[in-house]
Amino acid sequence: MNQTKRVIMLEFNELCPPLMDKFIAEGHLPHFKQLRDASECFITDAGEDVKNLEPWIQWITVHTGLSYKEHGIFNLGDGGELASDSIWDILSKKQMKSWVCGSMNVNYDAKNLRGIVLPDPWSKNIEPSDEVLSPFYDFVRANVQEHTNETFKLGFKEKLSFLMFMATHGLSFQTVKAIIEQLLNERKDSNEGWKRATILDRLQWDVFKHTYKKEKPDFSTFFLNSAAHFQHKYWRHMEPEKFIMKPDSSELSIYGNAVLYAYQSLDHVVKEALALRDDETAIVMCTALSQQPYTQADEEGGKLFYRPYDFDQLLARLQLKGVTKASPVMSEEYHLVCESEAAAEALEAQLGEFTVTGESLFLIRREGRDVFSGCCIHHDLDKSIDIERSGQKVVAFYDIFYQADSIKSGMHHPDGLFWISTPKAQHKVHKEKLPLTSVMGKVLNVLPVETAH
Q1: pLDDT over 90 at 274, yes or no
Q2: Coil/strand/helix, residue 87
Q3: Distance between CA atoms of residues 77 and 386, nearest Å
Q4: Residue 18: is it exposed, middle or buried by C-beta count within 10 angstroms (0-12/13-18/19+)?
Q5: Where are the domains of the chain?
Q6: CA 227 – CA 241 distance, rounded (Å)
Q7: Of 2, 114, 185, 225, which is most buried, counting CB atoms within 10 Å of its CB?
């Protein structure tokens, strides 16, 4: 493997090898093609059971070289409990600087870190390593965690802080143009709003590029989740023939190219990354895992998701005590931190008493003071339905919960993409799958590091 002085690692969550091949062959992704044709290319294998195929597990494997059994981090937001060094910790000990931009479920040694860390928007107890990044982090976290909640609005102060941050941290003319075009398109057609996720991608790339040029890190990561989100939500619109529940013609006209649109948006990032590197910089592209069509629930009407409008309201209306912090995770799940382990045990018991038409309302998983919960009902519910506790009506279901605007269409798959493009690399496709645990070592081998682990 040819060594270089620097590595830019593009972390594009859950891109699919078959879709990548298809879209490149059709001419939709010229910059992905350029990168692929100058890379050593691998298909990675997550090497985990289906129940452990989650990006917040797999990305820790990428960053540490450890399997789930070895690193033991199962929940999104629990990265702060990681006991092992991640790649940026290893490099810090070698006096090498890192710029970690949005990587999922991260932990870092704040005392010894050389560089900057911007955590993912689902992080629980991990904050940006530099408080200067807080206005951006808070804005993105709020928009990502509440993207399905139409009642959620950011305050004027938060918006102003974000705008002032972007004005001094790389906001580009191209991004401003894209924002204006998006807003104008939404005014003309309200069905254009789903594309907003890619605007956040552009904003994050501007921040990444600005910081990269300023800090000149030895190793940097840039994480995006938009394509994974679109695949989960719109795969049935891309390939309706694979699903029993087929979208109608109006939905197909709106969302039929949504997944392709996401890949094309990432293709723009690849173009910018290729322009950013020099003769001493390698570009690595990794997806950790991928997706495949999710058809299992179609015969029962599809898998739906319900989320609470407001966590304070949820706790108050259901008279749940002892919770000190509540935050959304992904899909229907949220994380409740209790004041003590005894309070968490009591909450676990209380949640188990709630039903809807005889069905348990909440999924419940307790770990010490932490309770992971969410609505475990995934089928359509009548608008007049009530939440009951021990057989007694408590509150109308839809006073507390709303139905997210999609049916699950994609599910996780253990295969992933891993490309390494060094300035002197020649294109090579490796036929044997690469264990995901080997990715970190290969990245370190590209850098001038004396020991790979």
Answers
A1: yes
A2: helix
A3: 31
A4: exposed
A5: 6-294+411-446, 305-403
A6: 21
A7: 225
The pair of structure tokens assigned to 18 is: 């078959």
Residue 393 DSSP SS3: strand
Highest mean pLDDT out of 58-72, 308-322, 324-338, 352-366: 58-72
- Rounded CA gap, 346 and 310, in Å? 22
Residue range 430-452, pLDDT digits in tens: 999 999 999 999 999 999 886 54
Neighbours of 159 (CB within 10 A): 13
* Confidence tier at 148 by pLDDT (50, 70, 90): very low
Q: Which residues contact 41 (CB under 8 A, 6 or more apart)?
A: 417, 418, 419, 427, 428, 429, 430
The CATH number of 6-294+411-446 is 3.40.720.10
Residue among 407, 369, 392 at smallest CA distance from 245: 407
What digits encode the pLDDT tens for the residues 236-272?
Answer: 999 999 999 999 999 999 999 999 999 999 999 999 9
The token duo for 386 is: 């009530």
Instruction: State the DSSP code for 432.
Output: S
Exposure of 176 in the CB half-sphere (CA atoms within 13 A) = 7
Q: Which residue is associated with the tokens 């254009």?
A: 192
pLDDT in tens, 414-426: 999 999 999 887 8
DSSP β-ladder status, 115-118 and 98-101: parallel
Residue with tokens 């305050």: 155
Segment 113-135 mean pLDDT: 92
Residue with tokens 């895992």: 289
Long-range contacts: 241-246, Cβ < 8 Å, 24+? 242/293, 242/295, 243/293, 243/295, 243/298, 243/409, 244/295, 244/298, 244/299, 245/298, 245/301, 245/302, 245/407
Q: What is the pLDDT of residue 149?
A: 44
* Pair of tokens at residue 158: 């938060």
β-pair type (40-45, 290-293): unpaired
Residue with more model confidence, 66 or 193 = 66
Q: What is the pTM of this model?
A: 0.86
d(CA 114, CA 98): 6
Q: How many beta carbons lie within 10 A of that of residue 70, not counting itself?
A: 12
Q: What is the pLDDT of residue 423?
A: 86
Rounded CA Rg of the chain: 22
